[in-house]
Request: fold
Amino acid sequence: MTSTAFILVAPQMGENIGAAARVMANFGLADLRLVAPRDGWPNPAAETMSAGALPDVVAVTVFETVEQAIADCGFVLATTARPRGMEKPVYGAAEAVARIRAVPVRAGVLFGAERAGLPNEAVALADAILSFPVAAGFASLNLAQAVALVAHAIVEAGDSGPPPAFEGVDAPAPRHELIAMMEHFEAELDRAGFFFPPEKRAPMAQNLRNAFTRAGWTSQEVSTFRGAIKALALGRGKARVSRPE
Amino acid sequence: MTSTAFILVAPQMGENIGAAARVMANFGLADLRLVAPRDGWPNPAAETMSAGALPDVVAVTVFETVEQAIADCGFVLATTARPRGMEKPVYGAAEAVARIRAVPVRAGVLFGAERAGLPNEAVALADAILSFPVAAGFASLNLAQAVALVAHAIVEAGDSGPPPAFEGVDAPAPRHELIAMMEHFEAELDRAGFFFPPEKRAPMAQNLRNAFTRAGWTSQEVSTFRGAIKALALGRGKARVSRPE
Reply:
């Protein structure tokens, strides 16, 4: 486990960003990433609410896309209370943190915007879903409260002893490798006419991404799979060339 | 374990009360108690921030004193990050909740005001201290964030199986019995001139309260001890009467 990145996707209220930064500082966490914050950055309301955490105690980096924000992460969790119908493991905070601690790579935790939560495309990029045991009729957690629960769980787990040894042989690939692989695959599938009819492209690609991200691919496996995509694409080209028309 | 009471002692900002109520509703908790809220009650800012938890989902009761607010609680935790120099056990959230679940009585969790935290007199009334693993240089948790961490821990523990059986024979006495006992004892000690010099009364009484609250007295034990105080007081009176002057 290296220091965990907290990624707020399209956050709206500066106050929530500031409150999130404050509680990260409370628990000694310093890697806060913002994807397309509504009101830009820096944000005076965020600094005021941060009680001194911003701009110096917690480092903020701004990204345009979720893909960029998690590029260096090898394990990604998506926080959501809503069922998504995605084939991903769902963890509570304690188990999620145990998984974070089990991987020798940087983990990233995605938090959605105040009203809408995380878009499905962002959830599809995550290895697993982190969900809190909220009441069915009152499920909407404040953004900074969700950050607080994860930050506390990380430090609480850290206090309880050394992290468990990593069970796998190789570390998961940084997420940018996996994303590039999926984009490569999807591009070839586009060319092959796989995504048909066109309105089905998004859900079909999402299902694939869910499957890929669940597997904890290593860099070697990513590389191998990309080689396989290339080979298939070339082969299809060859086949088309050699096919009598 | 019956439903746990969350007690905010002298809270200042209505926004924090509302945010606390919201996250209690998120985790299905409904017993919020306010001791001498600065801006009175009801508080429109609290309702706005509660996202619908107030006034209907979470029940709010207002008290003048901490003693009144915890009168029906048999186990009381005081949340604080500062070392208090009090002889009380200190638990993290998970262990604190395990203790709450182990007692077949209502538990109360005390939260201090935004800046000052809990007064020592309130901490002295608690069985134990609940402390979060905050960074030494950035230890001040937002009030509603502290409430969120405890509320989540309670529900998380509830999800992990049935509570452990209560190990003792009898349940702890409701706190009002213990408080009355301590007040009775202190009154007799006042009459006996025990608290001398006068400026030492507060710390001496506090030390006693810490000792008493640590013991998990049952109602029977409280009753027995009060009988002992009475007997000693009567005996001292008798001794004084019979003593040649």
Notes: Chain A is about 45% helix and 10% strand.
